[in-house]
Task: inverse folding
């Protein structure tokens, strides 16, 4: 009997329910220098095994297989490497055991899980346990589960406390370079050019500066340092939540690390040995985050605000305040959602200059007995006056099936947050099936 | 002696003749008759659109009294784990497993469709009449040959007409009145079953007259007075089974 058959038998005997989520999406660029290029072709299949559990006990085991679609070859020798011909990633999703009502209202979850904090949409500066995944340009709030222990005590709906501890730090998944360039190591010629400029500043003429610079041996390397594996490096935090009238309130504290690295270039020039050594040092700054959240409604309008102040235990990183305020409203069948953010826009976080003040919004309308969803979402960079729009039509012909047709249109001049995306507009087509 | 008895009977008849129950009394009697301490229910919701296509959802509903309710979708797959919690008319939340987040349902969002059905969140929250207020006198009428009280309810400025069976104080029909005075939705309660002295309508059919669609809620397994604690109706329990 094969392993598959044994597994199948175990699943049947233990009455495990299997939930599936299959999806594929392709992006086609229709303007700019890469016009007609497929910039994204991703297929993913997630399976979640949920044993039939009681009111007091729950377990879950989820895995995702993700393929990037296109072969990645560096030479003919790679033709024998299946992982390069069919690049596939296997990822562990939520894998946890949860015990409910250890005492009335006291629940404990241990394992790989998602713990979300925050009241705002898509961008939550108070949400610092689960790892952001910025790889998909259409999903701005994707989070990866993390290994942690989470305790929640909510004896009544009006009061609750959460405590969590995460022993393993997992960095964010970066944005795909197809849309936003990431902070990368400069190449040797860029460094040599910098050296020439330095010599000219020191008084050499340009011909001599180039002759001297050409004689230099130049090296470039990057170093990245992850948080340690010691007890003191654990990410931990707590959150108090309550209601006051029509409003939900929460206060939180977390000690942890930034999910994206800070970078410091270090250049050593040895004039006698005619050598330039460039090192891009990167590390994940340690921080303490104090957060506050509020959500409620006034006169039929849903309102929310979220603020987080990050105190960095790092002389090279400045303390930072992020604030989000937003509202949503439904009228005449339209759903409107708008929020202002003073903080970092997730997809632009690895840009040289992060976007700081922007507006995120969406208008949504369901049609034909909710079989068709139309949505226009967008982001506006207020300081640099650039704009990104994502129109979408989603067709739901039968239960479980979604067919998406949409686009991504960005407008950004020089120096704006969307400058890398200026005139690289795309359409996309996706299919998703859940069972 | 016979004269006295005749006089008493006459007075009694007169008393019964002039005494009319107030709408609120009828509503209170209805709540007493149909509200259990708590109940746990598995239900099926069938949504029929204009072109007679049917969509089906299965739900797990846990209720305490006539105000606290936690509903979780079991199927279809795209709604699995989505749950709705209400503890009072002002306090409603929805849990969306895809976002992993509990969101408060704001004023205008409370009128949005509950899981693609013709019920709004607000209507689901008041399905046991726990948040309704009745006004005026109860009129005695007949509905499909059944003697009934007709009362007017009001909630958040919206008016409804409710027919209550006279004999057992069971809800028969509810009509929600739009601002222009027309009937926007009509709910029919049927298949009553008595358990632990409580009458439960096992079928609630909602006709959305404005959209031409129908949602039928059928209760399959009903457990009554199982000892559900107040601490069950919290955000944390919304994630159960997501």
Result:
């Amino acid at each position: 009997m094969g392993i598959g058959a044994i597994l199948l038998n175990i699943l049947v005997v233990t009455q495990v329910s299997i939930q599936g989520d299959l999806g594929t999406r392709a992006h086609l660029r229709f303007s700019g220098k890469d016009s007609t290029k497929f910039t994204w072709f991703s297929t993913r299949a997630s399976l979640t095994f949920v044993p039939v559990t009681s009111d007091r006990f729950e377990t879950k085991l989820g895995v995702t297989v993700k393929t990037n679609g296109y072969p990645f070859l560096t030479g003919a020798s790679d033709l024998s490497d299946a992982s390069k011909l069919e690049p596939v990633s296997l990822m562990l999703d939520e894998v946890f055991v949860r015990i409910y009502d250890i005492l009335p209202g006291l629940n404990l979850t241990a394992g790989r899980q998602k713990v979300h904090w925050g009241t705002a949409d898509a961008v939550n500066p108070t949400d610092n346990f689960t790892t952001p995944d910025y790889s998909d340009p259409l999903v701005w709030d994707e989070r990866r589960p993390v290994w942690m222990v989470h305790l929640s005590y909510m004896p009544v709906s009006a009061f609750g406390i959460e405590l969590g501890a995460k022993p393993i730090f997992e960095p964010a998944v970066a944005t795909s370079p197809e849309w936003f360039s990431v902070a990368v190591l400069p190449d040797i010629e860029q460094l040599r050019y910098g050296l020439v400029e330095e010599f000219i500043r020191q008084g050499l003429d340009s011909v001599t500066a180039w002759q001297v610079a050409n004689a230099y041996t130049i090296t470039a390397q990057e170093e990245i340092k992850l948080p340690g594996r010691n007890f003191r490096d654990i990410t931990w935090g707590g959150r108090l939540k309550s209601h006051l009238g029509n409003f939900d309130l929460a206060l939180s504290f977390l000690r942890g690390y930034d999910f994206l690295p800070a970078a410091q270039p270090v250049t050593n020039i040895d004039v006698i040995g005619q050598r330039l050594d460039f090192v891009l040092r990167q590390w994940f700054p340690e921080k303490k985050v104090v957060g506050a959240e509020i959500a409620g409604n006034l006169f039929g309008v849903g309102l929310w605000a979220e603020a987080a102040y990050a105190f960095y235990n790092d002389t090279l990183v400045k303390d930072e305040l992020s604030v989000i305020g937003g509202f949503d409203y439904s009228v005449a069948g339209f759903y409107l959602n708008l929020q202002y953010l003073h903080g970092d826009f997730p997809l632009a976080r690895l840009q040289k200059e992060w976007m700081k003040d922007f507006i995120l919004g969406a208008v949504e309308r369901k049609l034909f007995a909710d079989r068709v969803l139309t949505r226009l979402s967008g982001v506006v960079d207020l300081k640099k006056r650039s704009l990104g729009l994502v129109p979408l039509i989603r067709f739901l012909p039968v239960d479980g099936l979604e067919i998406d047709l949409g686009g991504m249109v960005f407008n950004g001049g020089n120096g704006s947050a969307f400058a890398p995306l200026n005139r690289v507009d795309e359409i996309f087509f996706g299919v998703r099936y859940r069972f | 002696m016979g004269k006295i008895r005749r006089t008493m009977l006459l007075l009694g008849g007169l008393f019964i003749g002039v005494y009319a129950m107030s709408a609120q009394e009828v509503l209170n009697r209805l709540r007493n008759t149909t509200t259990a301490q708590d109940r746990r229910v598995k239900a099926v919701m069938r949504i029929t659109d204009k072109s007679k296509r049917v969509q089906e959802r299965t739900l797990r509903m846990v209720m305490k009294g006539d105000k606290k309710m936690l509903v979780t979708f079991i199927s279809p797959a795209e709604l699995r784990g989505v749950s709705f919690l209400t503890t009072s008319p002002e306090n409603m939340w929805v849990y969306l497993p895809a976002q992993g987040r509990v969101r408060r349902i704001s004023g205008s969002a409370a009128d949005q469709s509950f899981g693609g059905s013709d019920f709004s969140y607000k209507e689901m929250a008041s399905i046991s009449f726990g948040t309704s207020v009745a006004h005026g006198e109860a009129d005695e009428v007949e509905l499909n040959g059944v003697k009934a009280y007709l009362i007017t309810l009001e909630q958040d400025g919206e008016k409804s007409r409710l027919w209550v069976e006279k004999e057992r104080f069971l809800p028969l029909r509810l009509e929600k009145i739009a601002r222009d005075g027309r009937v926007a939705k009509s709910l029919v309660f049927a298949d009553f079953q008595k358990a632990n002295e409580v009458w439960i309508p096992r079928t609630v059919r909602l006709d959305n007259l404005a959209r031409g669609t129908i949602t039928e809620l059928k209760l399959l397994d009903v457990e009554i007075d199982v000892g559900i604690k107040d601490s069950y109706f919290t955000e944390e329990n919304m994630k159960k089974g997501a």
Summary: The first helix of chain B runs from residue 2 to 18. Chain B touches chain A at residues 47, 49-50, 53, 55-56, 76-78, 80, 85, 87, 90-91, 99-101, 103-109, 111-113, 116, 211, 213, 229-231, 233-237, 240-241 (CB under 8 Å). Chain B has four helices and 13 strands.
